[in-house]
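Submission sheet (multi-component)
Chains listed below:
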Amino acid sequence: MSLRSSLKLLILFLLFGATRFVSAQEMPYFLTYTHHMEEPGALEVALNPVFGVPKGGAKQFLASSLELEYGVNGWWTSELYLDGQKTGGASALYTGWRFENRFRLLMKEHAVNPVLYVEYEDITGADRIFKEVVGFDTFEGLLEPADEARHEKKREIETKLILSSNVRGWNLAGNLIAEKNLSGEPFEFGYAAGVSRPFALAASPDPCSLCPENFAVGVELYGGLGEWRNVTLAGTSHYVAPSVAWNMPNGVTFKLSPSFGINSNSNRALVRFGVSYEIPMFGSRIAR
Amino acid sequence: MNFHKRLLVTLTFAIVTAGCAVTPPQSQPAPREISAEVRAGGKLYAQHCASCHGANADGSGRAPSLHTASVQGMPDAALVQFLTDGDLPKGMPSWSRLPEERRWQLARYIKSLPVTTAAK
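Outcome: structure written.
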């Protein structure tokens, strides 16, 4: 079966095959993490394509990650990402994997809720997911052809301090990022921040898919903060990204977010699309 | 029409069609006269709680019944606070991702359930 056929089947399954009532209530963020963890035993499967519009002569690309998110327990969530990309005129590439864990540090809801994030990634220089922007990442990083960049190995540890609050229906979240390439490069720093709110705070009494309660809008801001001994905004790139999420009652969530570069070092635009489906009690079904 | 255009048309049609499709809730609210708040809470319960607590809230091996006296005797505000915090070490997730208005609707639905002594 070809990749296109598989993709079509996956989309049709998500739209029509996934008909159980499940608990998806996704924030509209793509990069910013909140303190909301995956429900214990639930598995979320997501596909997150990114269409990149670089500048400086670099070619447009379509990258995507397949994301498997599992709620280990109430305060611990694990995720595996498999990344790939296709740059205009070049072959499609598998660009690596990431494994992350998030640990909620306080067991009850507080005004500010901290979460610790630890990730190991084994990707190539051709990875174009832009799951975070750190250090002095700029549009120039995309000038190297993907067929050459794929030979560069990046084995990195990334940590984030996630701070998140819910206030009167709004979610406010900020992530501080520290990433270390294990080949000996210095720590690189970055940030992501987001604010979001559902269209309607209360649920309507009747089942519906297109009612305002199922939609949430937000905006994210993210970028680099330099590196160890050189924490700065100079020479870094930054993006602003309005976003919208549509949580369908059958557990499927669609998200859309165009990111726009806001300084001279940024790419022009990164358009993100996400579709996800949550399988409740996946762990206990497997254990049976 | 090339592949990309056909895919775009198919996707647009599929998304709009899926958006118009409505899946009925798995659990029904209590049989007496039901307020809109309780009905909304029943809908939220089916979406977020039924997979663990059961469609009729009578519990499963994974989560307790919500018909018990200990749940039904809980003040509404305490129940909303419990939904907000969860009990993370014991596997009850925090539902603070839902706006407070929806947590109150959930609590009203839960408190509308009949009390039984024989719970799982």
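Remark: Confidence is low (pLDDT under 50) at residues 15-32 of chain B.
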